Amino acid sequence: MKFFSQSFLYDDPWSIVSLAFFLRYPNPYASHVISCDVISRIQTPSGSLLTTRLILKRGNMPKWFPQGIVSRAESWVVEESEVDPHGKVVHCRTRNLDHVKVMQVEESVSFCQTPEGKTLQHTEARIVSGFGWGLTKRIENHGLTRFKANVQRSREGVSLILSLLRQSRLQPM
Amino acid sequence: MSASVSPECTPLKHEYDSCFNAWFEGYLEPAVAASASSKEREAYSTKKAEEFQQKCGKIWESYRLCVQKAVKEKGLDKLLQQAREEHPLTEPPPNPTQPGQSS
Asked: Measured between beta carbons, which residues in chain A are less than 8 angstroms from residue B28?
């Protein structure tokens, strides 16, 4: 098992960062996202919004990976989120639904408002392979390297949407 | 806006997304004082949920049914069910209010 954790501070307030996070697909940094659907969305009595999204992502297998085991380099991902607008917190958990024996990646992201009115993002990931054949460690290391690179790309995507949102809010109605 | 899993649902998804996003922008900045009691916050949330239902309820229902059908046809409902059994996810609380009574 590999574990990854990272924090990042946005200068923008929580509401706009959270909006950008939910609007992040499509963006040029996420061309691997083929489809994204809301499959369930409810508001709890206390006012939080619970959403489940089903996302199809395109991936590619490393060259050293044995051929013929993973028939298609696409992966279904389920994303479950909870938005609490009163407490100003977003929690979001994502994991892949297929190829789980090869590699399961479980990611948790949260966005909280800081006392200074900025937004703190915290990301955690667990990467587990049950593949065996002497490749488990190599797969997990590969998964971790890819995850680190993707965290960076994903943040660039959110930042791009953020700047678009800022621009549109500056324009007179 | 990104595509839906099924091309026939994509126009419905886009219409739903536009409606939801406009509502969501306001939802993220609740017009309730931070000092408000939980009762006041709940009343505000109920109002917000009703607003969603009124503006986007119909399109959400059409989009939801379309995706539900596509998910079943692709056998993804079984995959989702399996994943839930392996790692039980927190189920939404009973008797949720609107928007969208989901399955």
From this structure: 14-15, 18-19, 83, 85
How far B19 CA lies from chain A's nearest CA (Å)?
A: 13
Query: Does residue B77 form part of some domain?
Result: yes
Q: In this predicted model, what pLDDT tens digit does every residue of A54-71 receive, in sequence order?
A: 999 887 777 778 777 776
Q: Which domain holds residue B21?
A: 8-85
Nearest Cα residue in chain A from B72: A39
Instruction: Provide the 10 A C-beta neighbour count for residue A39.
Output: 21
Residue A80 phi, psi (nearest 5): -115, 125
CA–CA distance, B57 with B53 (Å, rounded to integer): 4
Q: What is the pTM of this model?
A: 0.85
- Tell me which residue of A115, A121, A65, A52 sits closest to A90, measured CA to CA: A121
ipTM of the complex as predicted: 0.87
